[in-house]
Design a protein that fits this description.
Rossmann fold, four-stranded mixed sheet, 13 helices, globular, Lecithin:cholesterol acyltransferase family protein, transmembrane
Length: 426
């Protein structure tokens, strides 16, 4: 009986949520050891050898941050690093979350990360996260629910399908949830790279072209065909970077970093092979391509596409999305994955815009329903209570029955009379 209870408790063990936020939602800190290497920081009173928050960005520090947050490619090791003279870091993993849709859950870990250098510079964090999930499982018997929002969904994709093997995932991870997911990238990453600008978060400069995370968010090749059309010439997503190289828009560092990530872009968005949920919106149009027809300025030199030139004429190709990210990646995964629940709000309401949908009661309910009414887990708290209560009652009944049987046998023995010749009478 005790074995039955152990098995029941093992099956109905609680879950721990590990949450990975999106781009720009983890703070970044710089420790400068040699200020002379960063000319745009010299007059900003940066303390030497002191951990200083540089993101969220302080107004007036844009050019300094562009130097500090740049990414360097090391030829000898085929790896990346921060520039000499500065160390960039973020917060440690912590047991809490301020996200609205996570308010109902107490057992939540937030995973801050360097969203500039993701994923090429993320291996130490992946190792730390893996160890924490294992430790949590061994201590609490609680499997992980791994959740990613936007770029965080790209992080979860890489962690579950590339960094970890399938056996490990099945042992330690209960399920995965992708919110406004960027696991298939976006066409606008091409524009950000070409223009060295991500104005929606206030980031400008050459270092945009050196950000591994931008290339990890490059549009997925199998899903992105004919995304750039210049008269009769059509470019698939797999051909876009070559165009930038041909136009001398990217430098050698950008080329090296792109090629380190290119293989990630060539595969279909892989099934994590665990129960998953994808929560997204396809009701707000988002740019997913460019079409140029009979524009002499662009035809003479396609680089004019990426300059703020009023004489350049082109049409934005629009697709369904959340106003920022295309829905095509979510739609593909919803059709291709084996065990996935999908919620598409299909709403033109700006409450379901990319960054805003996480603050809606509708998304919060979808999230809670998936966690609490997981179709693979019938062991809700009520069912658990009934099972354990029934098991205890069964044990009590067995004990009572055993006692009554023993008493009955004892009385029966006391009534027996044995004669000298060995015969028995009752």
């Amino acid at each position: 009986m005790s074995l039955i209870i152990i098995l029941i408790c093992d099956t109905c063990s609680r879950k721990t949520i590990f949450y990975v936020p999106g781009l720009g939602n983890s703070p970044l800190y710089a420790t400068i050891s040699n200020i002379s290497l960063f000319p745009n920081c010299i007059n900003l009173s940066f303390p030497l050898n002191t951990k200083t928050k540089i993101w969220p960005m302080v107004k007036g520090y844009e050019e300094c941050n562009a130097e500090l947050l740049d990414v360097i490619y090391n030829n000898s090791t085929n790896s990346i690093s921060s520039p000499e003279g500065v160390f960039i870091e973020t917060d440690s993993i912590y047991h809490n979350s301020s996200e609205y849709f996570l308010q109902s859950f107490n057992d939540v870990y937030t995973i801050p990360y360097n969203w500039i250098s993701y994923y090429l510079g993320s291996n130490p964090l992946f190792e730390q996260l893996k160890a924490l999930i294992e430790q949590n499982f061994n201590t609490t018997n609680s499997k992980a629910v791994v959740v990613g929002y936007s770029l965080g969904a790209n992080f979860v994709r890489y962690f579950l399908t590339r960094f970890s093997n399938e056996n490990w995932v099945k042992k330690y991870v209960d399920s995965s949830i992708y919110i406004a997911p960027g696991f298939a990238g976006e066409f606008t990453s091409f524009i950000f790279t070409a223009t060295s600008s991500m104005e929606f978060v206030g980031i400008k400069g050459r270092y945009v072209q050196h950000m591994p995370s931008r290339y990890a968010m490059w549009p997925n090749f199998p899903l992105s065909k004919n995304v750039l059309k210049i008269n009769d010439i059509q470019y698939d997503a797999s051909e876009l970077f070559s165009l930038l190289v041909e136009l001398n828009i990217v430098d050698e560092t950008g080329i090296k970093i792109y090629h380190m990530i290119e293989d990630f872009l060539t595969e279909d968005v892989p099934d994590p092979k665990i129960h998953s949920a994808i929560i997204y919106n396809s009701g707000l149009p988002v740019q997913c391509g460019i079409e140029v027809i009979n524009d002499e300025l662009t035809l003479s030199n396609p680089i004019n596409l990426f300059k703020k030139n009023k004489e350049t004429s082109y049409t934005k190709i629009m697709c369904g999305g959340d106003g920022h990210l295309e829905a095509k990646g979510s739609e593909y995964a919803c059709n291709a994955w084996g065990n996935v629940d999908c919620i598409d709000f299909k709403s033109s309401d700006n409450r379901f815009e990319h960054g805003a949908m996480g603050n809606t009661p509708e998304l919060k309910k979808c999230f809670e329903d998936f966690i609490n009414i997981n179709s693979n887990n019938i062991f809700t708290p009520l069912v658990i209570g009934i099972i354990i209560g029934g098991a205890i009652l069964l044990i009590v009944l067995v004990i009572i029955s055993t006692v009554l049987i023993l008493k009955k046998r004892r009385k029966k023995t006391e009534k027996q009379i044995i004669f000298i010749d060995g015969s028995l009478i009752k």
